[in-house]
Specification:
Blueprint lengths: L5 E4 L17 H10 L6 H6 L3 E6 L5 E14 L9 E8 L2 E3 L15 H21 L8 E6 L4 H9 L3 E2 L9 E6 L3
Parallel strand pairs: 4-6
Antiparallel strand pairs: 1-2, 2-3, 3-4, 3-5, 6-8, 7-8
Length: about 180
Amino acid sequence: MDARLTAIPFTRDDLDAVVDFHCGDARWARYVTDWIQGKPGGVLEALDIGTQVWLYLDQQNEVVGFGSLGYTEWVYPDPFGRGDSKRVPLCIIPAYGVDVRFHKKPNGDWQQHYSSEILADLIAVAAREWTREYGSDPNVTPLLGLFVDEQNTRAMRHYENHGFSKYGKPIRNRGQRMLLKLTP
C-alpha cells in the first residue's frame, strides 16, 4: 500500500493542532482523545519520559490521526511469570487514534483505511527502533505491545488483523494486553 499520510514528530507546540481532535464518544475513544490533547497522564507526560509521538497528516495537512511508541518491560513468555519467564524489554504503543472524520476512510476494505496505514507505520518504526536498540541479540525477543479496552472488540479485531494476539488476562484499569513479535 502506498503511503497517503505523512508522519510528523509531535512536540508540545502541536497541542493547538489537536484541540479539535476527536476519536469518538466511547470510554476508550475519550481516553485516546484526552491523551493526545495533553490531559493528565497523556502526551506531555509521555514526551517527558522519551515516548515518540507522531501526527499523521493527509494531503490537505489535516490531522487524520496520531501514533506513539515507547519502551517498557513485560513478563515474557508467560504473563503470569511461570517457568522461565522473566521481565523483558519491549516496544509499546501507549496510544494511537484516528479522528472520527476519518474512521473507516478511505472507503474500501480494512487494509485501505487510514487506521491500518498508521498502525502498519508504527509496527515498521518499532521494528527499526528495535534493530537500532538491540541489533540481532538472540537473547532478546523483539516484541511490540499495547493495551486495549477489553470491551473494545472492534479494536481487538483491528490489532489481530495486524498480527497482534491477546496476551494474558485483562489488567484492571489497563485493559487487555496484546502482543506482536516483530520481525526486524
